[in-house]
Inverse folding.
């Protein structure tokens, strides 16, 4: 690992945020920590991450502390090194002798191996801990390093499963999972949220006329434009084929409409030479959270109904499902809006 990666805290934090560690239980982590605890004969083992000014103890065996200040963690010392951190007796180590876990007798010895990403950032540590002083021999250190590599491998696999390989948008499964979280926040705290579905107009014709490689380029460019248009808190998902979804948490109807129109215009302004002058457009359906939305599937279906009306009424426009509910009849042309 290059030394500057150890000192690049902004890059390290950004690397951590690329990985999906939001789930409270990750079964492979639990199996790994359970094995480490048994094989090394330690009473405690954990997968930890340094996240800003805190240590997140994600998966733990033998104790039940979920979070500590970064300043009070052994892990912050582990991620500052390219190799394992071995502390045979924390009571005699000036770095840790006044640590509250040490002074109260909970932790006396520590072995930690950095969780290093393929691009060289230390996200956290896999650590084994004992209540008594002990020496960890080279074979035990090597064994823990191998288990740490498995933790990183699992993080990578989860990331691959989370994102669509062609466009970089999240997969439908991930999109649905995050939709449920937004719905839950609405139900519990009445926090607003909006969902956009959009579909590239006449995409089959693009594939048939210019070939699938050109169609793939269109998908990539549209996804790129969407990502450039959205806020960091928004989520772009590829729902299937040429259909995308956008989650807009903490967003009221007027702002969601404005976002949809900005993106519609951005897509319509795309120029791709490989399409020989042919333009690109997209149709949008919007659904804002209400008491009638109880599931991700229902929310997506409501936005999809609005998207269907946008396509039926001429494409390259946005339709609000809320306006559909209020309309006296099938007047989709009147339900689209302009900003």
């Amino acid at each position: 690992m290059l030394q500057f990666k150890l000192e690049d805290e902004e890059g390290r934090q950004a690397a951590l945020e690329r990985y999906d560690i939001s789930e409270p239980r990750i079964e492979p982590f639990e199996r790994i920590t359970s094995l480490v605890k048994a094989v090394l004969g330690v009473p405690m083992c954990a997968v930890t991450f340094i996240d800003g000014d805190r240590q997140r103890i994600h998966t733990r065996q033998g104790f039940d502390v979920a979070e500590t200040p970064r300043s009070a963690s052994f892990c912050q010392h582990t991620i500052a090194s390219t190799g394992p951190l071995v502390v045979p007796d924390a009571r005699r180590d000036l770095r840790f002798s006044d640590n509250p876990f040490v002074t109260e007798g909970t932790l006396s010895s520590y072995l930690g191996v950095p969780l290093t990403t393929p691009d060289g950032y230390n996200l956290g540590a896999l650590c084994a801990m004992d209540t008594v002083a002990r020496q960890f021999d080279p074979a035990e250190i090597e064994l823990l390093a191998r288990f740490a590599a498995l933790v990183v491998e699992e993080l990578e696999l989860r990331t691959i499963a989370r994102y669509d390989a062609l466009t970089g948008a999240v997969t439908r499964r991930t999109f649905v999972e995050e939709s449920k979280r937004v719905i839950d926040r609405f139900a519990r705290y009445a926090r607003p949220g909006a969902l956009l579905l959009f579909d590239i107009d006449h995409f089959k014709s693009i594939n048939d006329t210019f070939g699938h490689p050109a169609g793939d380029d269109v998908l990539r460019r549209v996804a790129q434009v969407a990502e450039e248009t959205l806020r960091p808190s928004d989520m772009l998902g590829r729902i299937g084929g040429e259909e995308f979804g956008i989650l807009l948490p903490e967003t009221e109807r007027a702002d969601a409409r404005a976002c949809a129109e900005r993106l519609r215009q951005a897509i319509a302004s795309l120029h791709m030479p490989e399409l020989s002058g042919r333009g690109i457009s997209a149709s949008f359906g919007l659904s804002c959270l209400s008491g009638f939305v109880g599931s991700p599937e229902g929310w997506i279906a409501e936005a999809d109904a609005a998207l269907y009306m946008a396509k039926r009424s001429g494409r390259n426009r946005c339709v609000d499902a809320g306006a559909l509910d209020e309309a006296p009849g099938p007047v989709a042309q009147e339900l689209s809006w302009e900003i």
The two ends are 50 Å apart (CA to CA). Residues 326-335 have pLDDT under 50 and may be disordered. Residues 138-162 form the longest helix (25 residues). Residues 172-335 form a domain with the Alpha-Beta Plaits fold (CATH 3.30.70.270).
